[in-house]
Amino acid sequence: MQEHEESITKHEQLLQHIEKLKIGSKISVRKLARQMGVSEGTAYRAVKEAENMGIVVTRERIGTVRIEKRPRGISDQLTFADVAEIVEGKVLGGGSGLDKTLVKYAIGAMKMDAMMRYVEAGSLLIVGNREDAHSLALEHGAAVLITGGFGTSLEVKALADERGLPIISSRHDTFTVASMINRALFDRMIKKKIMLVEDIIAGKPKPGVLKASSMAADFYEVAEKTGYLRLAVVDEWNRVIGIVGRKEIEELQEDQPIEKVLIRRPITATLQTSLASAAQTMMWEGIDFLPIVDRNRKLIGTVTRREVLQAMRDAQQEPQAGNVETFDHLIWNGFAEERDEDGGIVYHGFITPQMATDLGNISEGILISVMIQAAIRTARLLSGHDYVLDNISTYFLRPVQIEDAIVIRPIVLESSRRTYKLEIEIIYENMPVSKSVLTLQSIDHG
10 vs 44, 46, 273, CA distance in Å? Predict the structure, then answer.
């Protein structure tokens, strides 16, 4: 036990050492192990934990670098280290500036005077084998991305090191690297819209916890302070070993240890778990309390089902910035909701080229996605709640091809407070194309 306690202490010491490193410092596991007098395995685990904390980043062809921790609120922005990885680039100089944020980029396909009007501090100049442009961009506070696999002079590399501005070489052409950066920015915007557990844990007070040796009376005291009906139980190193709730405690006398009724090996989540995933997990498992842990199962915080659902509702009511669309949005964009003569919900749309296979017919996977979305949207319209797919049976009856106009007709077979069962029929020219029977589970009800 003492040996394990010492390794825990060393782990904390390693993390403190990494936190004190200068921003931009490169980190070698072997060197760190030698400096701190620990095994390379122990050093590696500490570096991975630091990466999880957001103070270290590891990039291919760059290595592990100490960075400034950024709040998740600006995670849609790219750093120059991100750019180097995206374009499969090699850093020629200015490595200490890799953690700086990309503000905008400019393509240097013009005369020098005109080019410099678009270059400013925090920007990135994408240019070919033009050393004069490389130098001038660095002097204006901009990083440089050299396309075509070209290098640059020793003087330019020294200037990049002096200014702390990366100069990166990529084998791809200008159009390709610009497309790669745009794609990455688009993906970041989508990720930013997806709320994580981290977003609701931030700013919350430390959770009330118990030890296995705590008494039932301790539970009542902590529960009264926090307002929680369930509490996490941790060991001496703050690792979650179980949870306990009021229902279990009622079996005990106040002077009895909670260990007798402890629910061991509870389901947990991490800071990077999406709120939707947390809600679905709690729904499927029939629980209303999640301890939030790090990679070593150390307790970071706790969330209740009510907190998760309220955060999701609040997010839906906020205005959406930017035109950010996932594949589900793109697939559904061509469909319009209507009411038939009997007041039932139907959807009309066309098969777009993006939905088709190489043979020109609609992809079966896309067809299933369309039916699932139709079912979930219908259940939400009728009940006001959010749903996830529980199971689906699908029948493909005849093919449809590009530009065919289809009708999607949902029929509610059964509904309750927690579930919806629907039949979804896709029709082309008054003939059925496919059918599915789906069962949905509400994430708003346990």
Answer: 12, 9, 28
| Residue range of the domain that includes 277 | 198-315
Which amino acid would we find at residue 311?
A
Burial profile 123-158: b = 16 or more Cβ within 10 angstroms, e = fewer: bbbbbeebeebbbbbbebebbbbbbeebebeeebbe
Between CA 221 and CA 407 the distance in angstroms is 59
Q: Which residues pair with 143 in a beta bridge?
A: 124
pTM score: 0.54
Using pLDDT thresholds of 50, 70 and 90, give the confidence band for residue 153.
Answer: very high
291 and 346 together in one domain: no
**CA atoms within a 13 Å half-sphere pointing along the CA-CB vector of 327:** 7
Q: Is residue 321 part of a domain?
A: no
- Number of structural domains (the chain) is 4
Res 321: pLDDT: 43
Residue 295 covered by a domain: yes
How far is it, in rounded angstroms, from Cα 368 to Cα 352? 15
> Do the beta carbons of residue 144 and residue 108 sit within 8 Å?
no
CB 248 within 8 A of CB 259: no
Q: Are residues 261 and 309 in the same domain?
A: yes
Sheet holding 167-169, edge to edge: 90-93, 167-169, 143-146, 123-127, 104-107
Q: Are residues 97 and 41 in the same domain?
A: no
Query: 160-195: per-residue pLDDT in tens?
Result: 999 999 999 999 998 889 888 888 877 766 666 677
